[in-house]
Amino acid sequence: QLVLTQSPSASASLGASVKLTCTLSSGHSSYAIAWHQKQPEKGPRYLMKVNSDGSHTKGDGIPDRFSGSSSGAERYLTISRLQSEDEADYYCQAWGGANHVFGGGTKLTVL
Amino acid sequence: QVQLQESGPGLVKPSETLSLTCTVSGGSISSTSYYWGWIRQPPGKGLEWIGSLYYSGSAYYNESLESRVTISLDTSKNQFSLRLTSVTAADMSVYYCARFVAVAGQADSWGQGTLVTVSA
Q1: In angstroms, what separates the C-alpha of A80 from chain B's closest C-alpha?
Q2: I need a labelling partner for A18 at 20 to 30 A (CA). Which of A75, B24, B70, B110 fits?
Q3: Are the C-beta atoms of A18 and A12 separated by less than 8 Å?
Q4: Which residues on chain B are in Cβ contact (under 8 Å) with A95?
Q5: Residue B65: which region, alpha, beta or left (left: phi > 0; alpha: psi -120 to 50)?
């Protein structure tokens, strides 16, 4: 069964960098995932797709501060030069066959 | 740039049917490059995929909701809809419609969401 695991929370200082992790369940380490940002009172925003080889394709208008990478069953979202507006929930999404799953989300606090 | 907008009643009584519509602008729902779906987020919880529908008519639903869910397309209005029967308090959520990339699979555009409350 395809399951995505995310840490519930993360924090980093304004101007610093943070790396969020999404872990694919056993047997699914070759899967691509997508990262989405969810700010309060707004709809989710697609950030990027991250492939198993670490390549990533960003959505329209996503700043260069956002990047993706991979290692084994882990998929990463790195945000550099943190800004206050980056404080949000971040969800990973994967798909298997015709089904989709989301991770539980990571709440990012910018200190 | 494609935009998606959910609409429908914000209040549904228990045991009744929840019906929502997503209006797509800036792109055609008949495009074979994409498919369309619904995701929800209960208060204080994470995102849950409800189901997706291809232009061909093939629909796929979350197993946990499959017996109660129908997603349909109205190409004449460039809209797609969600129907969820026999709702309970557990169905109270913000409901989002989204566009999915057909070959790749990611949701690349989202609506702003609509809150549906289930209460008598």
Answers
A1: 22
A2: B110
A3: yes
A4: 105-106
A5: alpha
- Residue pair A93/B107 in contact by the 8 Å Cβ criterion: yes
Contacts of A97 in chain B (CB under 8 A): 60
Residue B46: closest CA among chain A residues belongs to which residue? Answer: A104
Minimum Cα–Cα distance from A6: chain B residue: B46
Q: Show pLDDT as tens, one digit a residue, over chain B (120 residues).
A: 999 999 999 999 999 999 999 999 999 999 999 999 999 999 999 999 999 998 888 899 999 999 999 999 999 999 999 999 999 999 999 999 999 999 888 999 999 999 999 999
Q: Which residue's structure tokens are 């990463």?
A: A76
Beta strand ranges found along B1-120 (DSSP E): 3-7, 11-12, 18-25, 34-41, 48-53, 59-61, 69-74, 79-84, 93-101, 107-110, 114-118
Scan for tokens 């990012």, then name that residue. A108
